[in-house]
Specification:
GO molecular function: peroxiredoxin activity
Organism: Nonomuraea turkmeniaca
Helix content: 55-70%
Protein name: Carboxymuconolactone decarboxylase family protein
Largest sheet: none
Oligomer: single chain
InterPro entries: AhpD-like, CMD-like
Order of helices and strands: HHHHHHHHH
Number of strands: 0
Pfam families: CMD
Number of helices: 9
């Protein structure tokens, strides 16, 4: 499918984009001010307080729910780097898969936010038992951010890299 927003040509890339020539970046760089702000926000989420495993499980479940092939492709790679096995990565797509309680909670947060745009009281209580306030805020914002990004990627028809 042809992109609706063409990636910025390489001669117009900034230093970050040259070092990270992914289509998500080269496409969003078409709006420089918004791109810079988004990079700061997204970078904060990717380098936040949550363990990489938790972050990538939440992002992959969100990519699955939003049918975001681009997010899935990028974050399956990052999930492997975070120590998830191929079986775990594929199991994210199977809602009935068995998970350790800590992982199940992360997936439930993504599920609740996808289906209801809110957390059930039970999910919230479990989140309060497991994460401090900053961690709870970060996890909810992480899922919400990747829901938004999935819509942007799909709408702009951002192509997965070869």
């Amino acid at each position: 499918m042809e992109p609706r927003v063409q990636p910025l040509p390489p001669e117009e890339w900034d230093g970050f984009t040259k070092a990270n020539p992914y289509n998500v970046f080269t496409t969003l760089a078409r709006h420089p001010e918004l791109y810079r702000a988004w990079l700061r926000f997204g970078g904060t989420l990717l380098n936040g307080t949550l363990p990489a495993r938790v972050r990538e499980l939440a992002i992959l479940r969100t990519a699955y729910h939003k049918d975001s092939a681009y997010e899935w492709a990028q974050h399956a790679r990052l999930a492997r780097e975070a120590g998830l096995t191929e079986l775990e990565i594929e199991s994210v797509r199977q809602p009935a898969a068995l998970w350790p309680v800590e992982d199940r909670l992360v997936l439930q947060v993504a599920d609740d936010l996808h289906y209801a745009g809110d957390l059930t009281d039970a999910t919230w209580a479990a989140l309060c038992d497991r994460y401090d306030e900053a961690g709870r805020i970060e996890l909810v914002m992480l899922v919400a951010h990747y829901q938004m990004l999935a819509m942007v990627l799909r709408t702009f028809r951002v192509a997965i890299e070869e």
